[in-house]
């Protein structure tokens, strides 16, 4: 029994300390992940790039509110990056045509369709992440100044006498 206590102290295990692998969570690692996300890369792609599993990132975000705020800010910047990419993709017509073997200029419909798909995907994603900023129509909510305005409806009821009513209630003289 004394051997076990001695080997534990010799191995460097301190009482009260969690066992397991040391954390790989460093400020530099998190900065790299959030920088990539803010430029439009997915969280999955950034986790692969820095060498961690996506589950590890989700666990970190679930346990740390400040980290979650940083992640959400990176997603906001990602949406803005997508909006800028939409303009770049639509302005770039360099691959829309090519010269075929007979020297004729031919429209490459596949390239144009792919560009449209890229634009539509970014528009869809931006509208879902920031509907107020990039949505097609403003969401229907009862917030802000409109919510504080009382709704006032006026209903007036008027009793109007009819000729029949006045003759039946008239005087008998």
Output the keywords.
two-stranded antiparallel sheet; 173 residues; mainly alpha
Structure description:
This protein has 173 residues and is mainly alpha-helical. Helices cover 59% and strands 3% of the residues. It contains nine helices and two strands, in the order αααααββαααα. Helix 2 (27-38) runs parallel beside helix 5 (65-91), helix 4 (54-63) packs across helix 5 and helix 5 packs antiparallel against helix 6. The longest helix has 27 residues, at 65-91. It is flat and about 95 Å long. The model is unreliable at 1-11 (pLDDT under 50).
Low-confidence stretches: 1-11
Outline: flat
Q: What integer value in Å does the Rg equal?
A: 34 Å
Most strands sheet: 2 strands, antiparallel
In the sheet with the most strands, the strands line up as: 1-2
Number of contiguous helices = 9
Average pLDDT: 82
Structural class: mainly alpha
* Strand runs, count: 2
Beta fraction:
under 5%
User: What is the straight-line distance between the termini?
Assistant: 125 Å
Estimate percent helicity.
55-70%
| H-E order | HHHHHEEHHHH
The quaternary state of the protein chains shown equals single chain
């Amino acid at each position: 029994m004394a051997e076990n206590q001695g080997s534990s102290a010799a191995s460097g295990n301190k009482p009260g300390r969690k066992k397991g692998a040391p954390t790989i969570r460093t400020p530099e690692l998190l900065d790299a992940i959030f920088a990539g996300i803010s430029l439009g890369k997915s969280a999955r792609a950034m986790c692969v790039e820095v060498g961690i599993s996506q589950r590890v990132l989700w666990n970190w975000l679930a346990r740390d509110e400040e980290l979650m705020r940083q992640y959400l800010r990176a997603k906001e910047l990602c949406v803005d990056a997508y909006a800028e990419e939409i303009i770049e993709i639509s302005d770039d017509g360099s691959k829309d045509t090519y010269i075929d073997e007979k020297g004729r200029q031919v429209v490459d419909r596949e390239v144009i369709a792919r560009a449209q798909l890229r634009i539509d995907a970014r528009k869809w994603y931006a509208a879902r992440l920031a509907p107020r900023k990039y949505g097609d129509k403003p969401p229907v909510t009862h917030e802000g100044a409109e919510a504080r305005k009382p709704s006032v409806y006026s209903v007036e009821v008027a009793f109007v006498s009819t000729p029949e009513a006045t003759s039946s209630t008239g005087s008998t003289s």
